[in-house]
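Notebook, student rotation project (T.W.).
Task set for the rotation: take a protein with a known small-molecule partner, predict the structure of the complex, and write up what can be learned from the model alone. Partner molecule chosen: flavin-adenine dinucleotide. Sequence and SMILES entered below by T.W., checked by me.
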Amino acid sequence: MPASIRILVALVPTLCAAQSNETTHDAALTACNQLAGLLGSSLVQTSGPSYETAIANAWNLQNAEFQPTCIVFPTTSSHVQVAMKAVYDAKSHYAVQSGSHSAMKGWNTVQEGVLIDFKNMRNASYDPVRDSIILEPGVHWQEAVAALEPFGVAPVGGRVGDVGTGLLLGGGLSWLSPSQGYAADNFKELDVVLVNGSAITVTATNAYSDLFRALKGGGNRFGIVTRYELSAVHTGTKDDQTWFGGQMIFDSSAEALMNATARYVREVDDPKAVILVSMIYIVAGEDLVPVYLVVLFYNGPNLPTDIFGDFLSIPSVSSDLGPRSYFDVAGILGLGNERGFVQHFGASALVGEENLFLDAFNHWTNFSTAYKDNFNTTTLAFTPIPDSQIQAGRAKGGNIINAPGGGFAAVQIYQQFKAGINVIPADVKVGIDRLFKQIPPSPGLPLYVGECDSDQKVFESYGDYELLKRIYSKYDPERFNVKHSLGPGGL
Ligand SMILES: Cc1cc2nc3c(=O)[nH]c(=O)nc-3n(C[C@H](O)[C@H](O)[C@H](O)COP(=O)(O)OP(=O)(O)OC[C@H]3O[C@@H](n4cnc5c(N)ncnc54)[C@H](O)[C@@H]3O)c2cc1C
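Predicted structure of the complex:
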């Protein structure tokens, strides 16, 4: 093994202490050899341009440094079945990648194992008879929104275009969430390949209704989804400017913004209103340049001042508020497809008085100042999850996150590291862990798995954690996924 690969192997997170390196290596080779025979060399690759491009496509540079033993590029659900059966029989490690935007190291790729990469399954269509949106797992949100807009419908999906459908399995926070629930609350039917390669269709009412619920927040732990049928939201076409809003950018007034955010989270419960507050520092030499971005929309002809007045009254450096179609809303944050940097996410969840939000901001500012030499940008973002969102989800059958009613903010703590930093330095990791302790979730609130650190106890924070564990034991009694794939802990 070349020295560079040995170093790499040493750096990647380990999966199964019980399996020796040699066994892991042999198991992966066995699975890959079998798959090459069964599926052919165009669908199963061990090197070459498609293999290299797929590796490099991981959004977090840390995930682009893994080298799977082979990559399977399925074009049908049957290919995924064949792949999982071979993985299961060989007891190989494996991973699944759709949009590639996981910030968590190792959650969408694998060293010494089989990577199933959905880049060739990216169709999005509308079924008017069932009033459903059908997504293949490899589609990105910008592609889905563009394909469906002519029909006047949209999925409850991500807010950034290059992100993919892995978002759905974590729950999913959308511009449509205040009225429609978490993105996953809009599942109608899912085709799922279980760890042993068997394929099932799960719905809220068939024999797999428990698995259906677990897939609404269970991430990559409960099977591989090869087809999503989602409720269509009739958002209109590009010409239907039924929304009003846009972005406001501030270069100061952090305290006023935190006060406005705290009040919004506590008090606003209008399913037509949605905001995202991102406090960003861009590191420029010795300076942290504040760029505070507030995206705010109302599904109506203007921004009601009783909802948005606090934000609107703070002097901004730029603002582009105006009438928009949902297509415009969905595209406002762009693609987010810049690659080549180590990225790190962490999660909290807050509801409370103004000082709670200001304290979080101050802790994050101190952290950003202390470690700024490592970062291009550092971000503290707040996505309000109003009571209307939680109730909409419950009305649609409920999800496994089972957040308490009343509303709160999902808090994302995000750093993009400077080019040249390939591993998160130990001292920064200490700082990150300290920051998590300084900004703990308010009691009883769930963390969001799409925006967490891999060490955070996300499943444990769910309202239905005990049920989640029972469903996992039922569908994966050998704990194959936990032993052979990285992902959220706690099962
Ligand atoms: C720039 C950016 C913007 C974001 N914006 C939002 C946002 O607006 N709202 C929000 O809720 N979240 C957002 N997120 C977080 C996002 O939900 C997660 O990063 C999510 O994991 C991305 O899904 P993906 O398909 O792009 O990534 P991937 O890394 O491909 O997949 C994510 C996880 O899901 C698993 N997975 C993917 N597909 C399948 C499948 N078919 N079956 C089983 N497991 C699967 C993967 O193994 C991996 O563990 C954002 C993230 C980034 C980086």
